[in-house]
Amino acid sequence: MKKTIITIYFSLFITFCYSYDSHGVTPLMKVSAIKGQSETIKALIKSGSNINAKNTVGSTALSYASFAGNIQNTQTLINMGAKIDNNSLALACLGGHSDVVLLLISHGANVNSFDQDGFTPLMYATTSGNLKTVNVLINSGANVNAISKNILEESVLSNACSKKGNSNIVKALINSGAKVDYLSPEDETALMQAVRIGDIEIVKALVNSGANLGIKNKNGKTALDLAIKFNKYNIAKYLANEINKN
To answer: Hey, what's the signal peptide range on this chain (predicted)?
Structure first.
């Protein structure tokens, strides 16, 4: 009787290891996102779980661990043979997990890869607003002038300027050689992005770095025009004063 119960339990466990839900998510993926599950991860893999299986959006167990910021789980998966994929690096950057980002890079993750949406890890890091993650990528050779491979054709700097509170990240990118006046397909600049979200500290960082205040977008609007249009009057006043200096 005892042997039968053990046999049934083992059979159920093996079935569990190989199971997928309707989105292609495996038990290993779910466990990898939970802190402190290294031993469970090892057990699942040793029992037959596919360590490199992908769900319907292309994420693996390593992706789940990376996005959750679980450094121990990430290391365990790598030690057990997980493939270092660019999706995992992008997700670690989006989560702002600098330690996981550094770990993935040390195992060969490509800092200048483009994901299926056309963005680089650095673009995701600027979106996270985590300066330490941004610096890890820059110090590892990330291209600060990369342009997204999608309809936006957005620069890393423009992407950083589209999130409030990113002034220190903007400064770090500029100090590392980011081009301040890159024009998007709509002739929009990073300064115009900063004006739209209303972050005067980002605006000041760009202006102090030589942003061209006279550039017009395809609608014939300058950064000052946009500040007035979107009722960003503190920014409009600042830009007007900077223009009058010249």
So the answer is: none
**Single-letter code of the amino acid located at 95:** G
Q: How far apart are the first and last CA of the chain?
A: 91
For the chain, which residues make up each domain, given as ranges?
Answer: 1-83, 86-143, 156-246
Question: DSSP string of 94-136?
Answer: HTT-HHHHHHHHHTT--TT---TTS--HHHHHHHHT-HHHHHH
User: What values do phi and psi take at 134, rounded to 5?
Assistant: -60, -45
Which pLDDT band, with edges at 50, 70 and 90, does 77 fall under? very high
Q: Domain 1-83's class?
A: mainly alpha
Q: Is the pLDDT of residue 144 over 60?
A: yes
One-letter amino acid identity for 54?
K
Give the orientation angle of helix 38-46 with respect to helix 71-79, to 10 degrees: 30
User: What mean pLDDT is reported for the chain?
Assistant: 91
DSSP assignment, residue 155?
B
pLDDT exceeds cutoff 80 at 228: yes
86-143: in CATH 1.25.40.20: yes
Q: Per CATH, is 156-246 categorized as 2.60.40.1080?
A: no
The pLDDT of residue 245 is 87
Tokens of 27: 């038990």
